[in-house]
């Protein structure tokens, strides 16, 4: 093949440092201090405002300012609360008041003339919840694009670790910037975030936050990679890199092995492409774990491009289908972080990778294939390819890996997006505890899910006249995301199973809070939060 080699300009995630020193004692061009609205300050902030006379805020007349406020007054001669009033600012979550600081001789000067600060930002924290901290972090990140170093006391003003973590994740995720294939790279995002006034104990929380955000960042990079570069073999190479970097076993099955071992779904979907399918397994063993430690299997849909196959998509819906491997990217992102987060359970990541193309040997609507567990399936629409590759992965996990639980992640159906839009993923599960744990992890991490039912009556939609089952709803029952979930469910047999349909949330159509337009890698944060809390017994 050979040909043109694309050279990407990579961008590194924002670095985060913890500094015991105060806001202005660390060198930075821009500094940011937290502010809270008057009405929430009483609950959100225990200590009185440090910057100004506490009566200014405590009286209920104006907002509160957090640590660092006094330094602004003393060193820069600013009156932040007065400025907020002038700007009509309230301190709601994500509100930013930007105050330029001029050099001496060019307008207003800093009081002692010793600071390099060019700008002061007041960052609204609303009700002081983790969600507000995440939102504030994202807004702050957007306000400082192109800045080298930002010093802030927002984290120092936080009440607990979950707020610090949410804030750091918000900043790092919102500064996400794609490496591009442009000959001249664009402006880099924020380079270093310095958390001033934070003691050493916080560094563990910060390390976890940056690990999670970097995993999410990495998964987003995989999602955005164009499909002329990424194919199943390319994904396998990335998995090898992850395994190498984090001391994990990686096992890749190529198309010959897949055919020989009976992975009929992967083979059928992959055969329309000149770039053959792969089943990739990444194995994480927690150090020193007992033999009977729970085993979590994560399976990701890895369609590196979904043209629809012979049931070809129209141009518009096809245009974004390089992102149809988001589930795989999420699984790979999660596996890249489990060791650093000290996850206590065994985790296997399975990536079912194939390119769905209408090539000369493509599968046809009405073909009958056999999945890994022996179930025969009548393929009725080659655009419902995700369930075919995932069924093999789930069946393989159940038959060979002795999983305690299987969770799959997939951009499976447009119907999930129709039902829930862009803020909630569709969650299905055969196990209430598992579903509740995932819902909670989703709330905590800012990746929200909504549980939908595995409706018994709808099973009849999957009847086939020639095979064990059909694979789409020919009875026109509606509920397309549910039908997709019902198809997958049978391959999990009696193993507790959950399915996350991220078709709606996998892409952001515009910048929104910590999300950046494009692939969101939805699920990395929620699954890591869930795994972190997963007991070893
Ligand atoms: N990858 C698509 C689902 C999708 C749609 C993801 C929009 C992200 C955004 C999937 O393979 C697909 O084509 N599903 C079909 C299923 C149908 C043929 C039963 C769909 O949703 O239309
Ligand atoms: Mn499809
Ligand atoms: Zn697809």
TrEMBL record:
Q: One Pfam annotation, family name?
A: Peptidase_M17
The record's comment on cofactor binding reads: Binds 2 manganese ions per subunit.
Q: State the function annotated in the UniProt record.
A: Presumably involved in the processing and regular turnover of intracellular proteins. Catalyzes the removal of unsubstituted N-terminal amino acids from various peptides.
Q: Which Gene3D superfamilies match?
A: Leucine Aminopeptidase, subunit E, domain 1, Zn peptidases
Family from the record: Belongs to the peptidase M17 family.
Name the positions where Mn(2+) 2 binds: 301, 306, 324, 385
Any one cellular component term from GO for this entry? cytoplasm
Query: Where does the record say this protein resides?
Result: Cytoplasm
- GO MF terms, alphabetically ordered: manganese ion binding; metalloaminopeptidase activity
Name of this chain's protein: Probable cytosol aminopeptidase
Spell out the InterPro entries in the cross-references. Leucine_aapep/pepB, Macro_dom-like, Peptidase_M17_C, Peptidase_M17_leu_NH2_pept, Peptidase_M17_N
Which terms are listed as keywords in the entry?
Answer: Aminopeptidase, Cytoplasm, Hydrolase, Manganese, Metal-binding, Protease
Its UniProt entry gives the catalysed reaction(s) as:
Release of an N-terminal amino acid, Xaa-|-Yaa-, in which Xaa is preferably Leu, but may be other amino acids including Pro although not Arg or Lys, and Yaa may be Pro. Amino acid amides and methyl esters are also readily hydrolyzed, but rates on arylamides are exceedingly low; Release of an N-terminal amino acid, preferentially leucine, but not glutamic or aspartic acids
Give the record's GO biological process terms.
proteolysis
**Residues binding Mn(2+) 1, per UniProt:** 306, 383, 385
Q: Taking every annotated instance into account, which residue ranges of this chain make up the domain Cytosol aminopeptidase?
A: 381-388
Major place of residence: cytoplasm
Which residue stretches belong to region Disordered?
A: 45-65
Positions annotated as active site in the UniProt record = 313, 387
Which EC numbers characterise this protein's activity in its record? 3.4.11.1, 3.4.11.10
Name the coenzymes or cofactors required: Mn(2+)
- Gene name of this polypeptide: pepA
Q: What class of enzyme is it?
A: hydrolase
